[in-house]
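Form 7-S
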Amino acid sequence: MQGHFRTRAYLYIDRDVCSNGVMGTTVQAILQEHFEAFAATHPLAPYQRAAAEALRDCRTAALGGHWRSCPNGHVHTAHFNSCRHRSCPLCTSLARQQWLAGWQERLLDCPHTHIVFTTPQQLIPLWRYNKQRFTGLLFHAAADALRELLADPKYLGAVPGLLAGLHTWGQALPLHIHVHLLVTWGGLTAEGAWREPTKSCLLPRRVLVAVFRGKLRAYLGKALDQGELELPPDRTAAQIRGVLNRVGRMVWNVKILERYEHGQGVVTYLARYLKGGPLSNGRLVDCRDGMVRFRYRDNGDRDESDGRGRWKTLRLPVDEFLQRLLEHVPPPSLQTVRAYGLYANSKRPVRAVARVRFDQQPEAKPVKIRWQDICVQLGRPAATVCPQCGAPLVVHGRIPPRRGGSAQQPAAAAPPPQAQPPPGQAA
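Output:
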């Protein structure tokens, strides 16, 4: 066998996990067929184009690949590399599971609540041209509002744990800028004691709305005054200040959901949406005649039986679908998950005090999850072993990338390595 080497192709198994292996209606198939025509007529930021090309070429000959073989020479199969872009619906299962495992280890064994902070639609033009800066101010406004109020003995008088995640889309893929926060139901006092709220609600909603609204408007106004914000082409600084004044008189949408006995459910919910992009392939119905159809939940029309939005189908022109999809690609280095209070990385020693309070073991480094582990969890252990002898398959023999041409065409890979006899026979 050829020598083993480190490869970025270990996520290829997600293709089997996420699709049936047949080129059907997927985000990738739509990009392969329509992206070049779309890009020729629509202005795109460099990172949006790079993301679209990564999703289009994921697990195709364009990215190269590797051979996966039985050590006893029974099978040799070619597998193409994953793009590993965080917006790709095909290759984020492993990253999502690793992130989830880390946070499940960090969570305190106490009740939590879930709070959603939504920005007014009037601020979307400012967000479009300042995604990095606006997102940072949005995170700080939400976290600072909670920390300031919960530090008040009238509400809690302690330091809580906060986990925040950014979402930019709604079910039908419109721009809907909001932050989800998982908040511990209680916190540590300066003396190291655990204190819980005395009332059934963590905070009064009207008070939280007012503080959050004031902080975000103040942060944006200061950034505007200091020249840190790029103005939309059709707006002046005076007009932006007028928008900030008008939204200051509006009631903002802040939801404080019921208390949960633990935070595992909300963390699992966040994991599904923080990696993999805004639309899974399972929601796509078809793409034909220049139109894309996909399913979405209409939260304005809720089912009385479960209180959730009813499933409906939306039909969009391909160009509009791609415009909405690529609008939600985060710029490079944009951190969409942040932790504050007891959950901040720097607060591990303080968090250890709280873990003693809940009889939790000291935090352990999460075990690294492999793609083979994902296969076993999904009931597909055969995907990792030789179908004839059951030996674990070995990754080796690199297939170089094939740039240019159609990414949909099968790779003209080099011939597989010669089959080798089992070590015992070779000896």
